[in-house]
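Journal club prep — side note

Before the paper discussion, L.F. wants everyone to see what a predicted structure for a comparable chain looks like in token form. Sequence:
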Amino acid sequence: MRSARIFWFMVSLVIGLAGGLVYGWVVRPLNYTDVSARQLRSDYRTDYVLMTAEVFAKDGDPAKAAEQLSFLGNEPVIRYVQQAIIEGSEMGYARADLDLMGSLAAALQNWMPLQEEGVTP
């Protein structure tokens, strides 16, 4: 009797898993349309800016950092960094993380006027 219960439990488990996979992948698959980074929550945007600042700290390329930050929307990229610093301090980010974002902001401020004048650093 005990082995029959285990057998039917395993059969129902396999049927449930297979049914869930078929439903999720075939019947109602998830489709993303017109999703942009502007729809990210502010904490995720802050994390994205922090990750960009970490990459910038290693390679020191403000053009690459600005390109990565332009993914967040149409505003000037320096604004995203400034907002991330404010959000990060409110959310209790570590001082080292805030300093990384501050370094990125300073580098972008120095780099952006040069780009407007057509000079490459």
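L.F.'s comment for the group: DSSP finds five helices and no strands in the chain. Keep this in mind when we get to the figures.
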